[in-house]
Specification:
TIM Barrel, binds zinc ion, alpha/beta, binds glyceraldehyde-3-phosphate, eight-stranded parallel barrel, binds 1,3-dihydroxyacetonephosphate, globular
Length: 327
């Protein structure tokens, strides 16, 4: 089993009407929880590393842990699980180069905050280096709201991807997939209360995704893989557990899973999930301490944390992405 690019998995996902999960990894328990779920479900997988994760855990630790997960899968499951290792939100050529040189099979260059021509120029530079080294590139057009690597992008600053730009962008940069902004947002507080309506139980309901924009993009880039960032659904049962056990997360809100299922059936081949995994792990650890205030051995609370990650990923693979059984 080796680390693969996303080329083949995206082609199959596009034609099969499902999406690949791109899950952020920061430590051993998260890597184990995700890969165990993917092995059990025989689901192709993208493990992604942000700039923040890389400075928290160091590139070499994350790379060796991912290699260990691949080796363990090979031994325990006895089949080749396709795993791509991807840089999430690379913000410079140098960072992308360092990840390419360090063994990643895929990088994202995110210069969506720059003017169109500047985004094209830097993306093209990354694509040339990446393709020379057998690595694929995700680029971004349009701006999501929320937090990207500790930089806060306010909802007001976010702007949907303009479908009329995508063809020229892809042709001129040569990128292999494109992240677009159609109303998703990073983090656990995706929208302010003012941007939402409230349902009968008083819970916030966010504005619906712009499927019209997605359809337009699909029309202009037939067969081309589209990525959605900021796709966590912030399940309220986890927010409740956190709030009932010493946490404070008022008005945390995400994207309804039904809308993500719909996107996965369309041109969306990659769905990024990080916040929902964080919520699952944190809820399990807060609950654990509430029930066992005497515990102080990290293994006692990290083990349920790892299990919570595995359960969340299993749910996403089967019920949202539809990529179970596709490896
Ligand atoms: O899109 C951002 C990801 O959720 C990564 O978050 O920068 O805290 O690692 P991070
Ligand atoms: P969420 O914060 O919605 O999980 O999005 C994660 C993401 O887009 C990582 O790049
Ligand atoms: Zn993202």
């Amino acid at each position: 089993m080796a680390i693969v690019t996303t080329k083949d998995m995206f082609a199959k996902a596009y034609n099969g009407g499902y999406a690949i999960g791109a899950f952020n990894v920061n430590n051993m328990e998260i890597i184990q929880g995700i890969t165990e779920a993917a092995i059990e479900q025989r689901a192709p997988l993208i493990l992604q590393v942000s700039k923040g994760a890389r400075s928290y855990a160091k590139h070499v630790y994350l790379m060796k842990l991912i290699e260990a997960a691949i080796e363990d899968a090979e031994q325990s499951a006895g089949f080749d699980l396709p795993i791509a290792v991807h840089l999430d939100h690379g913000d410079s050529f140098e960072l992308c180069k360092s990840c390419i040189d360090g063994g990643f099979s895929s990088v994202m260059i995110d210069k969506s905050g720059l003017p169109f021509e500047e985004n094209i120029a830097i993306t093209k530079q990354v694509v040339e280096y990446a393709h020379d080294h057998g690595v694929v590139v995700e680029a971004e057009l349009g701006t999501l709201a929320g937090v990207e690597d500790e930089v806060k992008v306010s909802a007001e600053d976010s702007s949907y991807t303009r479908p009329e730009d995508v063809q020229e962008f892809v042709e001129r940069t040569g990128c292999d997939s494109l992240a677009i902004a159609i109303g998703t947002s990073h983090g656990a507080y995706k929208f302010t209360a003012a941007q939402c309506t409230r349902n009968a139980e008083g819970l916030l309901v966010p504005p619906p995704l712009r499927f019209d924009n997605l359809k337009e993009v699909e029309k202009r880039l037939p067969g081309f893989p589209i990525g959605l960032h900021g796709s966590s659904s912030v399940p309220q049962e986890f927010v409740k557990i956190i709030n009932e056990n010493g946490g404070r997360m008022p008005d945390a809100v995400g994207i309804p899973e039904e809308q993500l299922r719909e996107a996965a059936r369309m041109a969306v081949c990659k769905i990024n999930l990080d916040s929902d995994l964080r919520l699952a792990m944190t809820a399990s650890i807060r609950k654990h301490f509430a029930e066992h205030p005497d515990h102080f051995d990290p293994r006692q609370y990290l083990k349920p944390g790892r299990e919570a990650i595995k359960a969340m990923v299993t749910h996403k693979l089967i019920d949202v992405l539809g990529c179970n059984g596709k490896a």
